[in-house]
Design goal:
About 45% of the residues lie in helices and about 15% in strands. By secondary structure, the chain is of the alpha/beta class. The protein folds into 2 domains: about 180 residues, Trna Endonuclease, Chain: A, domain 1 (3-Layer(aba) Sandwich), CATH 3.40.1350.10; about 120 residues, no CATH class. The strands form 2 sheets. Strands 3-4-5-6-7 form a 5-stranded mixed β-sheet, with helices on both faces. A two-stranded antiparallel sheet has the order 1-2. The two termini are about 20 Å apart. The C terminus is likely disordered.
Length: about 325
């Protein structure tokens, strides 16, 4: 099915085509680990970590640690990274011998050498000193690379959202190559669109809320003086969020963008998660005319929509290269 056939189909036919042509994943190779972040998080501690290698395998680990930190208290700033923590000012819950609970603070950002015993006790009770004595044989820098890679993997859930934004931008870059009279921005607000292109996108936030809605992308066609605002997401699994998102975007279109002059709206979504929320998505098709998945983007549906007023029935686009 091409763009014209899709747009002339019934809402039910659009929905069925959408559901039948989804991608299984949006995870590009860069999804797994952001090595740039890993390196960035290690770099400030590399000298300290190499110095702390001195403690590896020491039998009198407590005495050696006290001596080393007394001579170089700034090394304490590297302790949190050894514990897979990005906090430098740490609050700790502890127990007295009688079982009574208390809390204390360990400030690794601005270490107080006069409280060295507190730092040492924390390292003992956390198991760090025993790990340095018996659990590691080589470089703390190599160990922390592994720790940071593990911490970065925890961000994969957030990266799933940004993956679609990256996919969108790659397609927008290609679009403007083919149409010099189109320009795009990402993270687009109504204010930014007004300032750049003098087109009014209705604000959809509730009265009194600040900041304005931030769309994943926006494209301005200079020939038609039209702005297309774009939201994109991908759902690998189900959940209540899918129903909420479908309702949110339907409301945005129906109450704000539908009747806005020179403004169009596209929702790009995909993923097997929609198998668990067919009804909300089907209902969204009854409201939003431009719902595409990644296969449709691959097949130039977004390009065809944005350039529709420049194209004749043969698909030829004046002022665009093909």
């Amino acid at each position: 099915m091409n763009f014209n056939e899709y747009m002339s189909s019934s809402n039910e036919e659009k929905f069925e085509y959408f559901m039948g042509n989804r991608f299984k994943t949006n995870r590009t190779p860069s999804y797994w680990v952001n090595w740039g972040n890993v390196t960035k998080n290690i770099k400030p501690y590399e000298i300290q970590l190499n110095t702390l290698n001195y403690l590896i395998g020491k039998q009198d680990i407590v005495g050696e640690a006290k001596s080393l930190f007394t001579q170089q208290p700034a090394l304490l700033t590297a302790i949190p990274v050894l514990l897979a923590s990005r906090e430098l000012d740490i609050d700790v819950l502890a127990f007295k011998d009688d079982g009574d609970m208390y809390s204390y603070n360990v400030d690794f950002q601005s270490p107080d050498i006069n409280e060295l015993d507190k730092y040492i006790n924390f390292m003992i009770e956390s198991g760090l000193l025993e790990f340095l004595r018996t659990g590691i044989k080589r470089s703390l820098v190599d160990y922390v690379y592994g720790v940071q890679a593990g911490l970065d993997s925890n961000g994969r859930k957030n990266r799933s959202g940004t993956e679609n934004e990256k996919i969108l931008e790659k397609n927008l870059i290609q679009l403007i190559k083919e149409c010099p009279n189109c320009v795009y921005i990402t993270q687009a607000t109504a204010k930014k669109i007004k300032d750049l292109w003098n087109v009014e996108v209705p604000e959809v936030l509730a009265p009194g809320k600040k900041g304005g809605r931030r769309y994943d992308g926006a494209v301005f066609n200079k020939n038609t003086n039209e702005v297309t605002v774009i939201e994109t997401n991908f759902y690998g699994g189900g959940g209540s969020k899918l129903k909420a998102v479908a309702g949110e975007f339907s409301s945005i279109y129906e109450t704000s963008i539908k009747n806005a002059k020179n403004v169009d709206f596209v929702w790009i979504s995909d993923g097997p998660g929609w198998d668990t929320a067919k009804n909300p998505m089907s209902e969204a098709f009854d409201v939003i005319p431009n719902i595409f998945n990644l296969q449709m983007i691959k097949d130039d549906f977004l390009k065809s929509l944005i350039l529709k007023k420049l194209s004749d029935n043969t698909g030829h686009c004046e002022n665009c290269t093909n």
